[in-house]
Design goal:
InterPro entries: Prot-tyrosine_phosphatase-like, Protein-Tyr_Phosphatase, PTP_cat, Tyr_Pase_AS, Tyr_Pase_cat, Tyr_Pase_dom, Tyr_Pase_SptP/YopH. This protein is an alpha/beta fold. It has helices at about 40-50, 60-65, 130-145, 170-185, 190-200, 210-225; strands at about 5-10, 15-20, 25-30, 55-60, 75-80, 85-95, 100-110, 110-120, 160-165. The chain has a single domain, classed as Protein tyrosine phosphatase superfamily (Protein-Tyrosine Phosphatase, Chain A). β5 and β6 (about 85-95) form a beta hairpin.
């Protein structure tokens, strides 16, 4: 984890999350799946609340969550230390029920915040999504939740989407790069990859098949804008 871009809570405690930037501008917060300990989950929730993340995007498939016994912290009601959560499912009618949407209410003392959650259930580790259209569709949803009350481009680590998969490099990097393309389809993806690696670690966007899908999404977008 790059300590230069590591996110810190208001009390100064660092969390295992980085701010991904491209061309000097913040794109998203990126991390690995929070550890299944009360402290780690409390810190994760505090970060979502304090940074007023525009949305939470969980790219870990249901199978992988079960296999690795990962906590389904974004659905249901929990108390993690000082933070209380209450998550309501909004819909799962998207893309053949591959995406569940929730609204998660967070409260900590006097602070309250509701964050939209997207859980993408059909994205295998180290592989692309089943279709390029789904990647673009996802980027659209994330971008739209950005505009609902949060600026799409913030100059700090606040009001950004928080994205994680399992390790926070492949699927997470791909999703964040898709957001960059939505902002500007002419963006240089090699430069996006290099900037993300500077922001987090050298493994960002390391899976070739995922990078190929980003290139396909870019080509599709440029064809649409040209026609």
């Amino acid at each position: 984890i790059n300590q230069q871009t590591q996110v810190k809570l208001s009390d100064g405690m660092p969390v295992p999350v980085n701010t991904l930037t491209f061309d000097g501008k913040p794109v998203a917060l990126a991390g690995s799946y929070p550890k299944n300990t009360p402290d780690a989950l409390e810190a994760h929730m505090k970060m979502l609340l304090e940074k007023e993340c525009s949305c939470l995007v969980v790219l870990t498939s249901e199978d992988q969550m079960q296999a690795k016994q990962l906590p389904p912290y974004f659905r249901g009601s929990y108390t993690f230390g000082e933070v209380h959560t209450n998550s309501q499912k909004v819909s799962s009618a998207n893309q053949g029920e591959a995406i569940d949407q929730y609204n998660m209410q967070l409260s900590c003392g006097e602070k309250r915040y509701t964050i939209p959650v997207l859980h993408v259930k059909n994205w295998p580790d180290h592989q692309p999504l089943p279709s390029t259209n789904q990647l673009e569709y996802l980027a659209d949803i994330v971008k739209n939740s950005n505009q609902n009350g949060a600026p799409g481009r913030s100059s700090s680590d606040k009001h950004l989407p928080m994205i994680h998969c399992l390790g926070g490099v492949g699927r997470t990097g791909t999703m964040a790069a898709a957001l960059v393309l939505k902002d500007n389809p002419h963006s240089n993806l090699e430069q996006v990859r290099a900037d993300f690696r500077d922001s987090r670690n050298n493994r960002m966007l390391e899976d070739a098949s995922q990078f190929v899908q980003l290139k396909a999404m870019q080509a599709q977008m440029l064809m649409t804008t040209a026609s």
